[in-house]
Amino acid sequence: MGAGHDHGRQSSTRTLLIALVVTTGFAIVEAITGWLANSLALIGDAGHMLTDSMALAVGALAAWAAKRPPTAALSYGWQRTEVLGALFNVVFMYVIVAFIVVAAIQRLIDAPDVEGGSVLLVGTLGLLVNIGVAWLLARGEQTLNTRGAMLHVMGDLLGSVAAVGSGVVVLTTGWMPIDPLLSLLICVLIVISSTKLLMETLRVVMAGVPKGVSLTEVRAAIKVSHPAVTGVHHLHVWEVSSRSRALSAHIEMQELDEWPQVLEQIAEMLNARFGIDHPTLQPELLCDDLGHGHSHPQE
Fold first, then answer.
1. Residues with Cβ < 8 Å from 100, sequence gap 6 or more?
2. Is 2.160.10.10 the CATH classification of the domain at 215-285?
3. Tell me: the pLDDT tens digits for 218-234?
4. Burial of residue 5 (number of CB atoms within 10 Å: 0-12, 13-18, 19+)
5. What residue spans define the domains of the chain?
6. CATH topology of domain 3-205
7. Nearest 5°: CA angle at 126, between 124 and 132?
8. Potential cystine with 276: which of 54, 92, 261, 270 (Cβ 3.0-4.6 Å)?
9. Low-confidence ranges of the chain (pLDDT < 70)
10. What is the pTM of this model?
C-alpha cells in the first residue's frame, strides 16, 4: 500500500474527527436548549445531528480500523467494523424517532408553550454549524465514508431549517402546533436516511453485488481483457467494506502459459474500472489432457 494512500486515509480520519467533535458538541447544546425551551423541534433536530455524529464516528472508526492488519481469526482485518456500527446507528435512530413521534402526537393534542426566541437562536446557530461541517467535509479527502457523512449533514440542514421555521412561526403568530408538526417532518428525514443506510448495510451483510457494479459488465470486461481468455464462470463480486470490493472467478483458457500476464492485466483492469481491489482468480483449461471438453453453465 503506497504512502499516498495512507496519507489519504489519515486525512479522511482527521476530517471526520473534527466534524464529529463539532457536530456532537452542538447536538448536546441543541438538546439542552430544546429541553429548557420546551421545543420538540429542537430536540428532534438534536437527534438528527446525533445521527450525523454517529455516522461520522463510524466513518472515523472504519478509516482507523481498515489500517489494522488481518489476524488469524479475522482474515479481512477489522474492515467490517463500519457494518456493525451502521446497524447500531439505524436501530438507535429508529428508537429515537419512535419517542419523538409519540411526544409529537401528545403535543398536537395538547400543545404546550414554546420559547420561540431560544428555538430561533439555537436553530440558526445549528444551521450555521451544519453549513460549516458540510464545507469541512467537502474540502477534505473524498472517500465513501465522507460522502456518506455529507448526505447525513445535508439532511440535517433541512432539520435546522425546520427548527428555525418553528421559532419564526411561534414568535410571529404564537401558533404552538407548528413545533410538533415540524418535529414530525424531521422524523421523516431521519427515517429516510436511516432506511437507506439499512438497505446498504444489509446488501453488504448479504454479500450483494456493490451498488453501481454490473456482473454482466464485469464478465464482459474480463473476457476482452486478454486474448488468452476464452470464458468466465463462477463469478462473484461483493463488498468487504465501503473501502474494499472483492471478486472471485474461474477464468477459462486454452493454455496456461500466459496466466501470470493475464492475472496481472485482469487485476489492474478490475481495480481501475470497477474499484475491485481484492480479486481471487482461478485459471482453468478449457479442455483436459484427454481432450474432453469442460462444460460450464452460463451465469
1. 40, 43, 44, 47, 183, 184, 186, 187
2. no
3. 999 999 998 999 999 99
4. exposed
5. 3-205, 215-285
6. Alpha-lytic protease prodomain-like (1.20.1510)
7. 110
8. 270
9. 1-13, 59, 62-63, 66, 140-149, 151-152, 155, 287-299
10. 0.68
Residue by residue, DSSP assigns the chain as --HHHHHHHHHHHHHHHHHHHHHHHHHHHHHHHHHHHT-HHHHHHHHHHHHHHHHHHHHHHHHHHTTSPP-SS-TTTTTTHHHHHHHHHHHHHHHHHHHHHHHHHHHHHSPPP--HHHHHHHHHHHHHHHHHHHHHHHHS---HHHHHHHHHHHHHHHHHHHHHHHHHHHHHH--TTHHHHHHHHHHHHHHHHHHHHHHHHHHHHTTPPPTT--HHHHHHHHHTS-TTEEEEEEEEEEEEETTEEEEEEEEEES-STTHHHHHHHHHHHHHHHH---EEEEEEEESB-TT-PBP-----
Asked if 191 and 97 touch (Cβ cutoff 8 Å), the reply is yes
- Candidates 137, 166, 154; CA nearest to 60 is 137
Q: What is the pLDDT of residues 239-255, one digit of tens each?
A: 887 778 999 999 999 88
